[in-house]
Each structure stands twice: as C-alpha cells, then as structure tokens.
Specification:
Distance between the termini: 73 Å
Number of strands: 28
Radius of gyration: 32 Å
Low-confidence stretches: 153-163, 292-299, 398-404
Helix content: 40-55%
Strand content: 15-25%
Mean pLDDT: 78
Shape: elongated
Number of helices: 27
C-alpha cells in the first residue's frame, strides 16, 4: 500500500523513509520533522494534517550571493549592532500551520530572535543575530524547512510590487469563453428543423466544450489548487465545495453532449467561474485599497524639527525629503534612515528589534529608521525617503502584543464548520432529489455548493472597521489596527493627562521670577530645553526661540522631575523644586519650572495654563464615562479643573510615570474598568501601554511611541467624544453586516435546496453578496460619519 508523507502529504512514490512509526517521502521532510520534534514544536501537525511543504534539496548553494555587502545592504531592512531585520517573500505560505511554524522560528534556530508573517502578502519578517547566522545561511535554513524565499532584483531594490496580472488574465479568459459559449448555444433556442444552425448544433456543442477547457484548466485554477491542497492536508476550506460544483458541471455537461442528450451546462460553468473571479478580484482590490491608504496615504501627524539657516522649523513627515537636516531630541524616534552629523548618539533600537540596548554612534555613522535617541539632541541628515509602510509594520509588530479580535474569533469559528455543514446539506439534498426528480439533482447540488459562501462574512469586520479607520484618519485620529476600534467601543473609563493633553503646550503665558538672565544664560537655558520634547520644555523653547544653540554634554532627563547638562563647562539644571532641593517659602501652587546654574538658583518660570478650545463642551460630552485626571504637575489648577469636569471626576496630582501606570492597573484590577488613557506619547508611555486603549496627543512635535494604540492630532482633541461614538457605531455596523451575510446564505440556500436557483444565477449572487457587504460598509460608515461629525458640529 502506498504511504502518504507525514510532513507534506505527498505520496511516497520512491523509497519510503520511516521514523517514529511515521512515513516520509524524502530526507528533507524527515529532517524538518526531526527539527520540529527536537524543538518540541510538533503541535505544527495538530493544526492541519500534513501541513508541511517538501523542502528544496537544491538550495544549498543558491543563496551565497546574499553575503555580498552591496546586495545585503539592498535586501535587509535593518542591520546594526549585530542585529539584522530582513523581509522575505515566501510564496508557498498557504495555511495557518505555515504561519505557526514560521512565527516559531526563534524556537527552532537559536540565532533567530523574532519572526512575524504577513499572510496576505506571503511575507515573513525575521530578526536574527548576524554574528551567529549569515543571511545566506538564513535563506538556506528557510529552504531546508520547505519555505524557500524568492529573492529577485525587484525585492532587492525595494520597488512596489506590481498588481497580480494572472487573476485578470484568468478573468479575461473566463469572460471571453462565457460570451462565446452563449453565442454557440443559440441553435438550441431556434425552432424549426430547416435552419442550418439547428442541423449543425452538434458541432456547436463541441465548440462549447472546447471553449470550456481553458476555463477548467486555467481560469478555475485558484479554486482547484486551493481545494487540492486542503484535501491533501486533510482539512476543509471554502474552495472545496466550489471546486466540486465546477467539476460536477463540467463532467455532467461533457457526458450530456457525448451521449447527445443536451447541450450541457457549459454556459453556466463559464459564467460561474467568471462571476466568482469578479468577486475574487473585487475582494483583493478592496484589501489592497485599505492597505494602500494605511501604508502610503495616511501619514501620521508627527512633526520633526528641520534645521534651516534661519533656525529650526517643525514640519510633518510627509514634507521630509532626502538630504534634509533634522534635530532628534531625547526619546524621539528617527522616522527615516539617516547619517549622524553632530552630537553624541545613544540609540535604542527596541522599536525595531524588540531588544532594549543602547548603541553609541559617532559622526558619519548610519542610523536606521525606528531608532530612538536617548540623551542630548543630535543632528542628522536624511538619506532615505520616509517609508510610511515600514513605520506601520513596526507599529503593528507582533512583539508589541498583537491579539486576535472578537470578530476574528467569530469568523474563524463559523468558517471552521461552514464547509462541513454545506457538504452535509448537499449530500442530503442529492439523496432527496435523486428519488424525487433526478433531472434537478445536478442543478440543486451545484447551486448549493456555489451559493453558500462565508466570503461576505469574512469581509464584514475587516472592511467595515477598515473604513472606519480611514474616516478617523481623515479627522486626524490614526489608530494602530482594527482591534483598537473594537477596544475604543468597549471603553467605560477615560484617564486624561493634564500638561500638553488638555492644555496647549506653547500657548500659555510664561512669567519669570528671579534675577535677570544674561544672554549667555538664556543661550544655555535654550540649549538645554531644546533637548527635550516635554510640553513645558516646548513652552520654554517657544519663549526663547531665536537664541543660540550651544554644545551640550552629559545630558540627563529624569521623567517627571527635570533635566540637566553641562554647557560652557557649567552644570545647567531645569526642573521641579523638590528635585533641585529648593526651599521656597511661597506655598502658592503654580505650574512652575526652576532654573539652577552651577548650584546657584537663578529663578523660576511660572506657566499660566491655557486649556484647549472647546474643552468644557468636550468634557461635557464625555460625562457618561468615569473620568480621571492624572498630572505630574502640582494641584495649582485643581479649582479651575473642577469648573470644567464633572463633580465625580477623580483628580490626582504630582504623579510620576510609574504612579500613573499603577493607578491604571488599580482601575483595571480593583474596579474592572476598561480604561482609555489620553496623554503624552513619550512621558506617559507606560500608562498608555497598560491601558486597553492608549492615545498619544501629537502637537507639532515628534511624539510617536510604539506604546500607544492611536495618535491624535492636538487640533482634533475636541472630537474625542465623536471618535468614541464612531467606534461604537462601527462595531454596530459590523454586527449588522454579519446579519446580512447570514440572511444571504439562509435565503440563498432555501432557494437552492428547493430547486428554484440556477447555478449561473448562484454564481452571480455569490460576488454580489460580497459587493453588497462592501457597499453597505462604505455607505453606512460614511453616512454615520456625516451624522456624527458634520451634521452637528458640537462635541455631543
């Protein structure tokens, strides 16, 4: 008896290799099994039976060219301090088992630290240690596992991948065949025996058969190949009933014309494949459109400080060009590859690698996008255009906690049992119609197999919430993923930072109390506060704009306390009076910052807070939520805040970043609150990450942080209540789309089972269901957005 390979499922046609009472078709499959077994990853075979891919035995010497420095530089995404990040295109990724084993590479090979799969693009991003593994060896290792990467000039030069033309060609062939088969079936509808068309209709029938062959052999490939792989792996997918329906139509039609019984159903067959390919193309274009908007159009509202001869100017990422000089401050993230020109760079690449470690750089060194400066501000020259797609991928990196959404879980559970139920209905219907009316049996079974499809269900959540993401982006709230929208809809408690969140960073009046500062002292102060992007530092930067920047050394910033550096051989300190150990008899509460130079107190800056426009009406619109204020500042503004916030609002002051994180943990654990935190993207990073939803407010500054779930442009802060309302509406629309999808399948099946639905009509209705869900998602979300954002301009 011929055995099937335990790993790849193919028949062991040559020598059968046995190990652990399992059979393998080649040494490659056996080796992969041994690797997985040694790494205790044999759950790979539990996800799907025989899910593996036969390894390429010829890959050993194919990848040596990858170690050439010029080629490696073009291919890798990141290469610094012994850590390399590379993205491979792996076309053979085809199922959940593939994703599982590829994302477990770090458990298989000790040099690999992380791997994440982009399933729809068939790409895997791998982080590895270059002192333990060469790029060529990584590619060989992938090929040995059966996941050979495809590396071409196109991937090396990082050009945008062209659209898949094969699907369009398959669609064109099916459309051409469908039209001509309909033409050749004309004699079947002409009455009278004298017509030469009727007399030669047997030839026309074979012409129709000939035209159906390219449809069967080429246009239907996506369904046939997918169904074959599923059956070979002993699993079920939605393409199995579709492939059965196509085969039934083709074989039945061939028998009908061979026996000279009827013209068969070749027109239905070609129409079926054509309309299903239309739906497939539409679905692919839908996802591509969302991905393109996400990666290339919706630049985040992050500003960088552009260095110009007349002074520094803050510009958005979309305006940054190759050759520009920028200033990168303490804890800011570099948005594009650059060369260090001035300053002492201490780079933390944990945003890219997931490993927090400081790397020292000197002038002339290359620094990769995603690196975070720790310490004094540095000057860099941009050498690559900003890659918004790359930043998006980093932000969505699985290392920062990707989880399956509630809607994903529903869709996966339904899809798992859907095909089995449909096949059961088909068998029962076939038995019934065999004894009732045999002539309708093939029509009924084919219609059932075609009409029932969870595609519309699968489109409901990603497209509806994706469209909501697009709407929020246009209003300048940029969310990380669709899970964030679901989480926003669940929020019942909102925690707000004060400084720079509900107040404007640069608009408040600043008064100085103390001895008059000399020009040199003003220059030193300006040089120190320029290193930080804290809201109070930004206020001082604005106040002393135009002053001379001096060389800064030994810079140190302590979150929630202050900052210091050596400038002109003098220790300059700016911060709270407690940190600077200042005994001040004035007990009045102010938002204040003290200045100390070489141990001598020079005075203090008192900030008159200016709250954001429409703050009172914004807070009123949030009145139904459990509101909290957490501030690192003192309680000087407490009475003013009581006039704006509801009486039940909890207010805590003098809170360190750790205090804020602990406070949110307490709300979650003790009160079971679903917390949204709105604050500073960098100074509140821990609290943002701890929250169910963390929103960083961006105000003319680089405040991008991997800890947050969304970035809110400060000018749209007043829309926060409407953003939450739109998220809730989006979740409601998804549930409505689910109902529409289920109703479509139930109604369609009822017509098919009773013999009242032709297969070609079922084929037309199948893509129509997907189109209808997409149209519903688009129209309903835009109409909802109009009523929420445009019709009523106040925050309620």
């Amino acid at each position: 008896m011929t055995q099937s390979c335990y790993h790849c499922g193919q028949l062991c046609e040559e020598a059968v290799i046995e190990l652990d009472q399992k059979y393998f078709c080649c040494n490659g499959c056996k080796t992969v099994y041994e690797i997985l077994n040694q790494s205790q990853l044999t759950d790979f075979y539990e996800l799907n039976k025989a899910p593996g891919i036969q390894p390429d035995a010829k890959a050993q010497a194919q990848f040596q060219f990858l170690d050439t420095p010029e080629i490696k530089e073009k291919i890798v995404d990141f290469d610094d301090d012994g850590t390399v990040v590379v993205t491979f295109h792996v076309p053979v990724i085809h199922c959940s088992s593939c994703v599982w084993v590829l994302e477990s590479l770090h458990e298989i090979h000790p040099a690999i630290t992380h791997a994440s799969v982009q399933f729809t693009q068939r790409k895997v991003q791998i982080t590895y240690k270059s002192d333990q593994l060469k790029l060529s060896e990584l590619a060989q290792f992938m090929a040995k596992l059966g996941y050979k990467p495809v590396i071409s000039l196109q991937s090396a030069e990082k050009t945008e991948k062209k659209a898949d033309r094969k699907l369009l060609l398959q669609l064109a062939v099916a459309g051409f065949a469908f039209g001509n088969i309909m033409l050749f079936s004309l004699p079947e509808y002409i009455d009278g025996d004298e017509s030469w068309l009727v007399q030669n209709n047997v030839y026309f029938r074979w012409f129709m058969f000939s035209l159906s062959l390219p449809v069967m052999l080429f246009s239907s490939q996506p369904y046939m190949i997918s169904a074959y792989r599923a059956i070979r792996s002993r699993r079920v997918n939605i393409d199995i009933p579709i492939a059965i329906g196509i085969l039934v139509l083709f074989l039945r039609s061939t028998y009908e014309i061979a026996a000279d019984l009827s013209p068969g159903y070749f027109d239905s067959l070609a129409g079926l494949v054509f309309f299903m390919l239309v739906g497939r193309w539409f679905q692919r274009r839908t996802y591509q459109s969302l991905a393109f908007d996400r990666d290339y159009k919706s630049f985040y509202p992050i500003a960088v400080s552009l260095i110009l001869p007349q002074g520094n100017k803050n510009i958005l990422l979309s305006e940054l060009k190759k050759g520009d000089r920028i200033l990168l401050r303490d804890e800011e993230i570099l948005p594009a590859d650059a060369i260090l020109m001035k300053g002492e760079a201490r780079i933390d690449n944990s945003f890219v690698t997931g490993e927090s470690r400081l790397i020292h750089k000197k002038a002339g060194d290359k620094i990769f996008a995603g690196g975070k400066q720790i310490g004094a501000a540095i000057e860099l020259e941009i050498i690559e255009e900003v890659n918004q797609s790359y930043l998006t991928n980093l932000w969505n990196n699985d290392a920062f906690g990707a989880v399956e959404t509630e809607f994903d879980t529903i869709i996966n559970r339904v899809s798992r049992y859907f095909v089995v139920v449909i096949l059961a209905i088909s068998v029962i219907s076939a038995i019934f119609w065999y004894f009732t009316d045999y002539s309708k049996l093939f029509q009924v079974v084919t219609a059932i197999l075609i009409i029932a499809c969870p595609c519309a269900l699968g489109l409901s959540a990603p497209f509806t919430l994706g469209n909501v993401m697009r709407i929020l982006g246009k209003k300048k709230l940029y969310v990380k993923d669709t899970r964030t929208i679901e989480s926003m809809a669940k929020t019942d408690a909102i925690v707000l930072d004060k400084t720079g969140t509900i107040t404007e960073a640069q608009s408040g009046d600043i008064q100085f109390e103390g001895e008059k500062l000399t020009t040199d002292q003003e220059n030193m102060l300006f040089s120190l506060v320029t290193q930080s992007n804290h809201p109070l530092s930004r206020g001082l930067q604005h106040l002393f704009r135009g002053q001379k920047l001096l060389k800064v050394s030994d810079y140190l910033q302590l979150k929630g306390l202050g900052q210091q550096a050596v400038i002109n051989n003098q220790l300059v300190q700016v911060g709270s009076k407690d940190w600077l150990k200042i005994q001040n008899p004035d007990n009045r509460n102010h938002t204040e910052v003290w200045l100390k130079i070489d141990g001598e107190i020079k005075g203090r800056f008192i900030f008159q807070n200016k709250y954001r426009p429409n703050l009172a009406s914004t807070i009123q619109a949030l009145g139904s939520y459990d509101l909290h204020i957490l501030s690192g500042d003192n309680a000087s503004e407490k009475e003013n805040l009581k006039q704006i916030f509801p009486e039940k609002t909890q207010m805590e002051f003098n809170q360190s970043p750790q205090n804020k994180l602990n406070y949110i943990q307490s709300l979650q654990l003790n009160e079971n609150k679903k917390v949204m935190m709105v604050g500073d993207g960098l100074n509140d990073a821990g609290a943002l990450k701890q929250s169910l939803v963390g929103i960083a407010v961006a105000e003319d500054m680089n405040s991008f942080s991997p800890s947050c779930d969304a970035i809110l442009s400060s000018e749209s802060f007043h829309l926060l209540p409407k953003f939450i309302k739109m998220s809730k509406k989006g979740v409601q629309l998804v549930k409505t789309a689910f109902v529409i999808s289920f109703l479509y399948n139930i109604i369609g099946l009822s017509f098919a089972v009773t013999g009242n639905l032709e297969p070609v009509v079922a084929a037309i209705l199948m893509p129509v269901s997907s189109v209808s869900v997409v149209l519903f998602a688009t129209l309903s979300s835009w109409i909802s957005a109009y009523f929420i954002f445009e019709r009523n301009k106040n925050p309620n």
